[in-house]
Design a protein that fits this description.
single chain, rod-shaped
């Protein structure tokens, strides 16, 4: 009859409360198997978390190396941009006087050296 009463009370008790009472009963009983199982669980959790932490530290290290690489690449690209700008400035400074020479000529005439192919063509056009 005692088991019938406990079964009826189990049906009326919510599952959460039932689990809590069973857990408290198990804690009250000294059980070597339960302690061994808890130790196994704790050691498994410790092992899994330590390997996860090691993996995370490895990823952090890899990301730091990637960051250093990207910083060096940014520096290299910046140096190349600076060199290209310096080259462009040299070209602009070199072409500047040519613009002033070209602007001083009257439209329709060109400054051509005698004996070059362009001079020969212009002479033929004028003569023709």
């Amino acid at each position: 009859m005692d088991s019938l009463t406990s079964a009826v009370s189990d049906e009326k008790t919510p599952p959460l409360e039932l689990a809590a009472t069973q857990l408290s009963k198990e804690k009250a009983k000294p059980s070597g198997a339960l302690e061994i199982s808890a130790e196994r669980f704790n050691s498994s959790v410790a092992r899994l978390t330590s390997s996860s932490i090691d993996e995370l530290q490895g990823l952090v290290s890899e990301l730091q190396k990637m960051q250093e690489f990207l910083k060096s690449e940014v520096d290299n690209v910046q140096c190349q941009i600076d060199s290209a700008l310096a080259g462009i400035n040299i070209i602009v400074e070199t072409i500047g006087p040519w613009k002033s020479i070209a602007g001083s000529q009257t439209p329709g005439t060109r400054n051509v050296r005698a004996g070059e192919p362009a001079a020969n063509i212009e002479q033929r056009i004028r003569a023709g």
